[in-house]
Write a structure and sequence with these properties.
One of its GO terms (molecular function) is dipeptidyl-peptidase activity. By secondary structure, the chain is an alpha/beta fold.
């Protein structure tokens, strides 16, 4: 057995057997050789991929195991196909704690949701909807759970990302443990393990040549869109195709202009509300100058800006910090969220409404800023009827946390923000700054600033923003197949980080002119409010997946 970085690579059939047996004694093996065209890939502790790949039967332990649902043990098979449990919280209790160490036999309970009502049995697809940097408390995308699943007679499973929500591999967490266990590598290998166990549990064959083979299609939007594409790119023997919406692949390869994201956010706002770019810059300049030239205390200035002064972080000791983070940073960070949800485009979107407030010359600068927070939401009502913005709603948890963290598009609040910020300090470095042509106060992106911030935030962390790109070589997706990227052309992440053109006959890009951040996945389906462009994109994706599924069927005997 050789190693690829810290990852063991199996190079012959005897090692496959030995490796799988050390990972789980209940594994059985049905392997066949396939030619490989790419360099060695990541390896799941229960699976083997490398110069020679094998089709592997997953652990029988899931078939005989019990799952926990709402604290009560149930036999898994009986309930995985129970339609009454569609959309209910469920658990896979045998997920590996350390996917990269075959000698580590620790397990944890992985939360997921499923939809089985459309499943027509072995021989039909499994859609795996990937979640990302947030709690997964319900099903995500009706377009998949209703539209796709009903069309293809598919089973749908939606696992929560490790460390988010209730999916916690470890009882006690630390920077050292995050460094090893909280990574896209581990998350993808969780996915592969769950996929293979699901196939077995549903009675699917593991051989693509069998009519009972269940092709797996990964789906994700944003960071999960990236994971979806990587799942197919890195594990083509287990993942048959990928649907990746607003997937910022090139962002994570560091192969992007650091200022293109907020330039795009500015362009979209300007298109929806002409004059917004200049109005925003004038407002930020005025607020900055007024506050810095005042004799107010930090708490007085915060109240004038519309903040609940009692929610200010303890490190806000001076007006400069309040302005730099509470004005210069917070406006683009919240505008980033507005941009993602600027669909359907028009005057009712949050960014268009805020732009109209910024352009309203009858309002003072502070009134405009208050209006900005009212559109954002999260206001706290006071006894006197007034309201203020809770700064903690934008603050991540943990020691040495700051409002302006490692993700300048908004780190997020609480524990979720802590976990995401760590990822953005390690494998998912996000290069964003504000250029002179944007609607925001100029701020240069700096790797040095980010490394210093992350070192203070997470003492002992390992700084290597190019690790994933160096190990996976995904910047051009060379050798990839059966991946469809969808891009909303009003979405800063898709336009500046995804692929906007076909890379090959089987790595395709669909651009949605009036779409925003994974608008094609949508909050409901069918949706009368969807634009023609989004509806057409959804149909295109269905047609592409159907073609690829038919190609698999054509090779079955």
């Amino acid at each position: 057995m050789t190693r690829y970085g810290s990852i063991p690579i199996v190079t012959n059939a005897h090692e496959v057997v030995a490796f799988l047996e050390t990972a789980d004694e209940s594994f059985s093996i049905d392997y066949e050789r396939q030619n490989r065209r790419r360099a060695p890939l990541l390896l799941l502790a229960a699976f083997a991929l490398g110069c020679v790949a094998y089709i592997t039967v997953p652990s029988a332990s899931w078939t005989t195991a019990h799952m926990m649902m709402h604290g009560t043990p149930y036999h898994r098979k009986r309930h995985l196909l129970d339609n009454k449990l569609d959309g209910k919280e469920m658990w896979y209790p045998h997920q590996s704690v350390d996917q990269l160490d075959p000698k580590d036999h620790r397990t944890w309970s992985h939360r997921f949701y499923k939809v089985s009502k459309h499943f027509q049995g072995p021989g039909h697809p499994i859609f795996v909807v990937i979640s990302g940097e947030d709690d997964l408390d319900s099903l995500l995308y009706p377009f998949i759970e209703e539209g796709m699943a009903s069309k293809f007679g598919a089973f749908v499973i939606e696992p929560e990302h490790r460390f988010y929500g209730k999916s916690r591999p470890l009882k006690h967490e630390s920077v050292a443990k995050y460094s090893h266990y909280l990574s896209p590598d581990q998350a993808l290998l969780d996915l592969v393990q769950l996929v293979q166990a699901t196939r077995t549990e549903l009675g699917c064959s593991l051989s693509r040549t069998s009519p009972k083979y269940c092709p797996v299609i990964t789906v994700g939007g944003s960071y999960p869109g990236y994971l979806s594409a990587m799942a197919r790119f890195l594990f083509p023997d287990y993942i048959d195709m990928s649907y990746a919406s607003s997937a910022p692949v090139q962002l994570y390869s560091q192969n992007v202009d650091a200022y293109s994201y907020y330039d795009k956010v500015s362009d979209v706002a300007e298109a929806m509300s002409p004059g917004c770019r200049d109005a925003s810059r004038r407002l930020l300049d005025e607020l900055r100058e007024t506050v810095l030239n005042s004799d107010w205390s930090v708490h007085q200035a915060a109240e004038k800006l519309g903040y609940c002064s009692h929610t200010l972080p303890s490190y806000f000791h001076d007006l400069e910090t309040l302005v730099e983070e509470g004005v210069v940073y917070i406006v683009p960070a919240i505008f980033a969220e507005f941009n993602m949800f600027s669909y359907p485009p028009g005057p009712k979107t949050q960014n268009a409404r805020v732009c109209e407030i910024f352009k309203n010359e009858s309002l003072t600068a502070f009134e405009k800023f208050h209006g900005f927070f009212s559109i954002r939401g999260g206001l706290v009502k006071r006894k006197d009827g007034s309201s203020c913005f809770d700064m903690m709603s934008e603050m991540p948890a943990g020691k040495h946390s700051r409002l302006m963290g490692s993700d300048w598009s908004g780190t997020g609040e609480g524990r979720t923000g802590l976990i995401w910020e760590f990822q953005c300090c390690t494998d998912l470095v996000i290069r964003t700054g504000y250029s002179n042509s944007s609607m925001f106060y100029p701020r240069e992106f700096s790797y040095e600033w980010l490394e210093d911030h992350c070192a203070a935030r997470f003492p002992g962390f390992h700084w290597n923003p190019m690790r994933l790109q160096n190990e996976w070589n995904f910047d051009q997706m060379e050798g990839a197949s059966n991946i469809v990227f969808t891009n909303g052309m009003n979405d800063g992440w898709a336009v500046t980080g995804s692929f906007l053109h076909d890379l090959s006959d089987t790595v395709l890009a669909i651009n949605i002119e009036d779409g925003a951040h994974h608008s094609d996945l949508g909050p409901k389906y069918p949706n009368d409010d969807d634009t023609i462009a989004v509806k057409n994109a959804q149909q295109q994706v269905m047609d592409i997946l159907e073609k690829w599924l038919n190609e698999i069927k054509a090779g079955q005997v």
